[in-house]
Amino acid sequence: MRNIHHFAKSAFALLCLVFTTASAFAQAPTQAKVDGIIAKVNSNVILRSDLEFGYLQYLSQSKQQPSEDLKCQIFTSLLQDKLLLARAQVDSVIVEDAMVTNELNQRIEYLASQVGGTERLEQYYNKSLKQLRDELRRTVRDQMIMEKMQREITSKVTVTPKEIKKYFNAIPKDSLPYFSSEVEIGQIVAFAEIGKEQKQEARQKLEELRKRILAGEDFAKLATQFSQDPGSAQAGGELGFFKKKELVPEYEAAALRLEPGGISNIVESQYGFHLIQLIERRGQEFNTRHILIKPATATVDIAAAAVELDSIRTMIMNDSISFAKAAKEYSDDKATKDNGGMLTSRATGSTYTPMDQVDPAIFFVIDTMQVGEISKPIPYTTPDGKEAMRIIYLKSKSKPHLANLQDDYQKIANAALSEKRSKAVNEWFRKNVDTVYIDIDPEYEQCGGLKLTQ
């Protein structure tokens, strides 16, 4: 049960659960059983489809054989999730909208990186980014609340060196895990700058469209015809209602300065140049439409990015600056610059990556590198399609080996702590199961969910 519950909490699994399996089910034959509520914890419900999605996703990730016992374990894990949410509602545990928005944006960016950018993401699901965010927002909020509840439950749980050793010694010798070669990899990224001429052309095109709108032409029709935002162009450029801090700062600031019906001046953001019309304000929310023009990228200055990175590499190699500090000061990659430039696993948060899971584009660079070396600048295309250069740092590389306390102390300590936290959470479940209303469909009563035992 511990492993299944951990799976249900992983951010990567959540993304797959919400989108991947939902997409698969949309294309699958009609289900044998009609969807419906199979459990209720206060006002929080579990649908049959929730269980089926989670069950199929776990099978695909774990490679286990299908079984009713496994499905029961998934059901109990979902029931535990709903109990956490129910108690959070009773105890007024919340997460701020800004935190949800930030996490949501990170997950959308991660998902986009898996399919080749935001435009391909929208095309793949045939939905705008706004629709995808709306569908995922509640799930992200609920998960963040559950994680906050678990942190509060386990905040005082720690493990001593003696407990770590005891945990390791309890593992049968023939069951010790075998760790493949793992690496720690860092990067510093420099975006290739778009030339001034390309930016000026994009701005001039929008200026001309602005004049046409002020002369009486319809903003929505021109947005449909000219906007390069695939998520909103077909809707006349309309984005729908957003709260403050949910859109990029430059766009939001310009939009909120307008009166309904007003037209902004040209606004530059990370996505390109915008012409914005405020449609309506409603409390703390506002609805806008826009026309987005992206500067042509055919003549980005890759050479300048390479020269910049080569200079940074030289400073690091001459010990004038550490790699971590250089990443923080110079890297254009927001995902890694504040982490010393180190790449991390989204599923585990670890900086250690098994060699067989390293991005092929990086694998062939580090394959001939020695630990501590930094590559020369190499071409790189970001997940959202930007042209860039990067330098790669091989911080460490381990040899394949059986788990042992000397080489793997931190991993073993984390495993021991995870087990102890799991026990604390399960004890909390047992103490709180009678504090909420739980109703389970007779079909799933045999799963023993009400016992909430490990």
Automatic annotation (TrEMBL):
UniProt KW Isomerase keyword: yes
InterPro entries noted in UniProt: OMP_Chaperone_SurA, PPIase_dom_sf, PPIase_PpiC, PPIase_PpiC_CS, Trigger_fact/SurA_dom_sf
Domain of life according to the entry: Bacteria
Keyword field contains Acyltransferase: no
Record's keyword terms, sorted: Isomerase, Rotamase, Signal
GO molecular function terms noted in the UniProt entry: peptidyl-prolyl cis-trans isomerase activity
Pfam assignment, any one: Rotamase
Signal peptide annotation: 1-26
Gene3D superfamilies per record: 3.10.50.40, Porin chaperone SurA, peptide-binding domain
PpiC domain: residues covered: 180-280, 283-393
Protein name per its UniProtKB record: Periplasmic chaperone for outer membrane proteins SurA
Organism in which the protein naturally occurs: Pontibacter akesuensis
